[in-house]
Amino acid sequence: MKKNILSLMKPEVVAIKQQDIFKFNARAKAIPDVINMTIGEPSFTTPDHIKLAAIKAIEDNKTHYTVPEGDHELLNAVASYLHTKYDLNYDPESEIIATTGVTEGVFSAFNAILQPGDEVLIPSPSFTIYGPDANFNRATPVYIDTSKTGFKVTPDVLDEIMRTHPRIKIFLFNYPSNPTGVSYTHDELAGLADVLRKYDVFVLSDEIYSELTYNFKHEAFAKFLPEQTLLLNGLSKSHAMTGWRFGVVCGPAEIISQINKIHELATTSITSITQAAALEAYKNGLDDSIKMREEYCRRRDVLAAGLTKLGFECPDPDGAFYLFGKIPEGLEQDDVKLCFDVLEQEHLAILPGSYFGIGGEGHIRFSYASSMENIEGCIKKLGEYVATHIHTDETAI
């Protein structure tokens, strides 16, 4: 009789499902001529001076272990960068960890903080890792449907949920937002901080898109609530370094020291070569993101204008590189069915909004991290699809 070895596995792991966005992209990649507007992947390449710094590190045989929290010259450079950019003051010796991207930062922080029965408050629609990370730790995600409030959390709603959910241990805050592109002004952040100050709760503030903020200057949540906030940031989006897998977790020393224990168990340390590249980015790449941001703005405007003409309504994209369009009346309102239909008929890959959770239903996420050629091709193909599939009152008679 064959043994059921799977039954010995941790149930929380077995319960995790492959993310729908990965399955959808696998199907899209099987189509040779597909235009892919799904990926949050900069079309730019890592700046040359950063690549050269990594090559030099290899040539200089800097290929050995580093201390778990990260090379201290690097941590000093991170602290200086965050001070210059966002007026933050972190002690590089005790308040910063270099992680394998923000993904590992979230995972390590959740593992260090959460206990069975805790709750994690997540504005939704949201990036897809946060809920499963909570479930893995036998905590329960609690979602705020932001679709009725311009895809933003309001202080009144936040206060009501915090008051009625005393087991909330973490407020997971991501801005500029993936998938909606919305961000928060000074006054909006101050209002949320005033609410959270009343409660014993951590704020994990995922600000990986901070340097891709368009309509106003990005402000870090840690400026408003430093004693409760863990800042998550990195170089993937600002410096087109997704494959290098570099992130940071910053916060109060006594909390960072505990998270570092999990980080050590998971990784020992991130690669020495990635750290050499990150050091160069933080020391000499202060303005690397400017030209990228300007180009993203140009792409955003072209895509937004095209989608508007086709009847899609999108929240004002304050940052990141996504538009979150409401499906026009007259088209199939099931966003999953619509996206698969568009993929099969037009060879255009766009992501269903419902993949990003509550409040995403009836929407589609478009990434303008893609090339201008792809953006123009997307508008053309989507226009052809809309023209042949939309139903008006007149056509229904």
UniProtKB/TrEMBL annotation:
Cofactors demanded by this protein: pyridoxal 5'-phosphate
Question: What are the UniProt keywords, alphabetically?
Answer: Aminotransferase, Pyridoxal phosphate, Transferase
- For whether the record's keyword set contains Transferase, the answer is yes
- Where does the source fall among the domains of life? Bacteria
Q: Which GO terms describe its molecular function?
A: pyridoxal phosphate binding; transaminase activity
| Parts forming coiled coils | none
Q: Which residues form the Aminotransferase class I/classII large domain?
A: 33-380
Would the keyword Acetylation turn up in this protein's UniProt record? no
A Pfam family recorded for this sequence: Aminotran_1_2
Q: Might you name a Gene Ontology BP term for this protein?
A: amino acid metabolic process
> What InterPro entries does the database record attribute to this sequence?
Aminotransferase_I/II_large, AspAT/PAT-like, PyrdxlP-dep_Trfase, PyrdxlP-dep_Trfase_major, PyrdxlP-dep_Trfase_small
Family assignment?
Answer: Belongs to the class-I pyridoxal-phosphate-dependent aminotransferase family.
PANTHER family attached to this UniProt entry: AMINOTRANSFERASE (PTHR46383:SF4), ASPARTATE AMINOTRANSFERASE (PTHR46383)
Q: Could you identify this protein by its name?
A: Aspartate transaminase
- Organism encoding this protein: Companilactobacillus nodensis DSM 19682 = JCM 14932 = NBRC 107160
